[in-house]
């Protein structure tokens, strides 16, 4: 049950900060899984099943993203209170700069408590 709550919160983040495709697909049509588990931060992969993306959104918005939650965020045992960790702001600035020159995944949005980035599959 806790896993469903975590998935629901991750989907809510995608719906709030990304475009309409994330809002139009059903809960079961989105996959969310933890990529790594740190003590203070969590990283998740979220994707819309390819066959479920409305045609008007194909090639317009991301169907796969990575969500970084600082301070374990909503899905960890430590709930984020909106505090900035040392270096969090500098890290987001560095990622934005590297993203602009194609040296890091595209940064879609930075929000209080985390950020959403492009998913880059390992080859």
From TrEMBL:
| Source domain of life | Eukaryota
Q: Which GO terms describe its biological process?
A: phosphatidylethanolamine biosynthetic process
Matching PANTHER family: CHOLINE/ETHANOALAMINE KINASE (PTHR22603), RE24176P (PTHR22603:SF93)
**What family does this belong to?**
Belongs to the choline/ethanolamine kinase family.
A Pfam cross-reference name: Choline_kinase
Give a GO cellular-component term.
cytoplasm
Q: What name has this protein been given in UniProt?
A: Ethanolamine kinase-like protein
Q: Which UniProt keywords apply?
A: Kinase, Lipid biosynthesis, Lipid metabolism, Phospholipid biosynthesis, Phospholipid metabolism, Transferase
One GO MF annotation is:
choline kinase activity
